[in-house]
Amino acid sequence: MTTENSQGETGLAARDMERELTCMIAHLDGAVLALVFGLIAGVGLFAMTAILVVEAGPDTGAHLRLLSNYFCGYSVTWRGAFIGFLWASALGASAGWVIGYLYNRVASIRRKSSATGDA
Known about the structure:
By secondary structure, the chain is mainly α. The protein has one domain (about 5-115). It is built from three helices and no strands. It has helices at about 5-25, 30-55, 80-115. Helix 2 runs antiparallel to helix 3. The longest helix is centred in the C-terminal third of the chain and has 39 residues, at about 80-115. It is rod-shaped, with a radius of gyration of 25 Å. It starts with a helix and ends with a helix. The relative contact order is 0.16.
């Protein structure tokens, strides 16, 4: 076995490994990503609202109260905290699903291009 032959085999093995890794790009489950983003957003808004309700100082939550322009029924109250949880969960879930969908589309395009040798 010559040095050139072993280098050629090493290069071929490296290309095969790269091709396999490209084909194994992770597929994100859009439903799981939506669930995680939704829970993070919902719990986050609920917690922020709850902290401000407990704090209850003068002009409490002036900035957070502006969310009522976008989330119908939201206010810096306990009732508003639950309504905000629902709205933020829906918005976060939508964002998570879109991110998962776009990632999977790009990964699919990359997978196809590496399979045909265009990459």
